[in-house]
Amino acid sequence: MADLQDEVHPMTEVAALPLEDPFADPLDLLDAPGPSGDPLARAHALLDDHPVADGYTGLPWVLRHLPWYDLEEGESAVDTDVPRLREGHVGALFWSLHLPEGLAADRAVGATLEQLDLVRSVIKAHPEGLRLARSAGHVIDARNCGRIAVLLGPATAAALDDSLGILRALHTLGLRVLTLAGTSWASGAGLTRFGEEVVREMNRLGVVADLSGASEATITRVLALSRTPVLCTRSAARSLRPHPDNLPDSLLTGLGAAKGLCLVPLTAEQTGPTVRDVADHLDHVRALAGPDCVGLSGTYDAGVAHPQELADASGYPRLIAELLRRGWPESDIALLTWGNVQRVLRTADFVARSARERREPSTATIAELDG
């Protein structure tokens, strides 16, 4: 398994700037005022090398209700388009396949397939900006080609219709993240025997579990059971802001021990109305879970309000500048923006390859295990 630091390259400390005094020592420039000392300029430079892997966008559901759009030229009807993603230094983006509340349960499978079909069509229509990614390697390939990697998921667990066969079909179509909440086998009481079999099959396939919105019992059991690190795609610190999707300190500590990843959402409801509020949550999660267990989730185009200066996907440099002002080392920021998501994706690929050598596709049914 590749080492985490494969994706975190040391930053160049001395910029090639013209010297007023031709005999001056270039190292003296590090302490001199100017662009190199400006947090926003440093943020842009850092993000050039370590772009943002954004853990959640609600764009697919919004796009299906627009009569026309062009994401490469720019689209005012949404928070996310290619120009703003490039301005925000976003290199990879998880496209949510979540369904709106109130949709009939018997429509979940069909509606999720329609979402998948839409996303693939959008990517095909915007080849200069977007590229579908199924693995950590594909994400790197997309970046090297100057494209923004699109990862499919999270999808709602209801889309499985209690069938491991449907899980495998969705994985074949590109699904890489599944939210474990809102089903009889992943409920307030935790995972049932069938729910545990779902997690094992996800590990075998390389589908990562999303635990945002799941019960504490479900989160605790998945952390103990899953051999692949989990994601919380939209969770901040509950001790700072008591939102039901935010995590208490005990679970943040447990998430860190399991090397999972808490993707802090940029929403006013969950993190607060200012950039400083978001930075407070990032500080808190990093302190409890560790610097290799915290990431970012724009949660744009999801019908929620965003903090000041973070109204759309172009705002990430302002958030990184705030972290630099707080003294975050560049190595921790490189993990926050890019390295931690790459680690989770690489580990999921590695675990899946190993599991498929030892385990055949599961034929278990919910009637057999929970009936």
Automatic annotation (TrEMBL):
Protein's GO biological process: proteolysis
MF (Gene Ontology): metallodipeptidase activity
Top-rank lineage group of the source organism: Bacteria
InterPro entries: Metal_Hydrolase (IPR032466), Pept_M19 (IPR008257)
Gene3D superfamilies reported in the protein's UniProt record: Metal-dependent hydrolases
PANTHER family attached to this UniProt entry: DIPEPTIDASE (PTHR10443:SF12), MICROSOMAL DIPEPTIDASE (PTHR10443)
Name of protein: Peptidase M19
